[in-house]
Write a structure and sequence with these properties.
Distance between the termini: 43 Å
CATH class: Alpha Beta
CATH superfamily: Dihydrofolate Reductase, subunit A
CATH architecture: 3-Layer(aba) Sandwich
Number of domains: 1
Shape: globular
Order of helices and strands: HEHEHHEHEHEHEHEEE
Strand order of the largest sheet: 5-4-3-2-6-1-7-9-8
Strand content: 15-25%
Oligomer: single chain
């Protein structure tokens, strides 16, 4: 006789239906309540914002823009408005043709009231600083980007970018690699503690592997992609970090907006 294991204890399931109170994305105060950072931070708090298809793809036809919708763009801009600094990988800057953050007059006033700069800088994590001078990152930005690189690259990058960017050595024990813990310490020392990272998958994977991610916001698009698109986090290492859900929103198009924070 083959023994059959007993069923696990019952788990309570909750149906998420149209029972919550609806609000428009232009209700800034209501949206901000879902995406504000913890108060009185003494260290960097790292939030990641990513977009995925129903079948787990991080891109559609090579970029994340093919997965986006109006609600996702509103949430994207809300998170940027809350952040002190936006951290991205060099590959994402190239693929998505990143520009500097754009802030409305209302957003600038709100940021000033919170003691923040009017526009958060883009901080690019890159081992080689192989970015083009005519990229929007430099040509369409009110605030010079921060180029977070390593000891072996910093002098060359400083010479190449000049006043168009601030180049920072954030290497640790390895002179040819950026150390993320060192990066966060540098940002914290500058008062840039509300960190928003928008990936890509390699950078998010490094934050997870290094146990430096505090929060993950994932928009799930009602789209199937298939193919060989990457998922939202990748890399060579693995981690096991328990998270807890703080909210789950939806919209008439069927997008899901989830927010998870560390369970410990």
């Amino acid at each position: 006789m083959v023994p059959v294991p007993e069923a696990d204890a019952a788990t309570e399931l909750t149906e998420l239906g149209a029972v919550g109170s609806a609000f428009d994305t232009d209700d800034a105060d209501r949206l901000a309540a879902y995406y504000s950072y913890p108060a009185d931070l003494t260290r960097c708090y790292v939030r990641a914002n990513m977009l995925a298809s129903l079948d787990g793809a991080a891109t559609d036809d090579g970029t994340s823009g093919g997965l986006a919708g109006p609600g996702d763009r509103a949430v994207f801009h809300r998170m940027r408005q809350e952040a002190d600094v936006i951290v991205v990988g060099a590959s994402t800057v190239r693929i998505e043709n990143y520009s500097g953050a754009q802030m409305s007059a209302t957003a600038r006033q709100a940021r000033q009231a919170r003691g923040q700069a009017e526009v958060p800088p883009i901080a690019v994590v890159t081992h080689h600083a192989d970015l083009e001078h005519d990229a929007k990152l430099f040509t369409r930005s009110e605030v010079p980007p921060l180029i977070i690189t390593c000891r072996e690259t910093v002098d060359d990058a400083t010479h190449r970018f000049g006043d168009a960017a601030e180049v920072i050595d954030a290497s640790g024990a390895q002179p040819d690699r950026v150390d993320l813990a060192r990066t966060l310490q540098i940002l914290a020392d500058r008062g840039l503690r509300r960190v928003l990272t928008e990936g890509g998958p390699s950078l998010l994977g490094l934050f997870i592997e290094s146990d430096l991610l505090d929060e993950l916001c994932v928009t799930i698009a009602p789209i199937l992609v298939a193919g060989n698109a990457r998922r939202i986090a990748g890399g060579t290492g693995e981690a096991h970090t328990r998270m807890r859900r703080t909210h789950l929103l939806t919209d008439p198009q069927g997008f899901l907006y989830s927010r998870y924070v560390r369970a410990d």
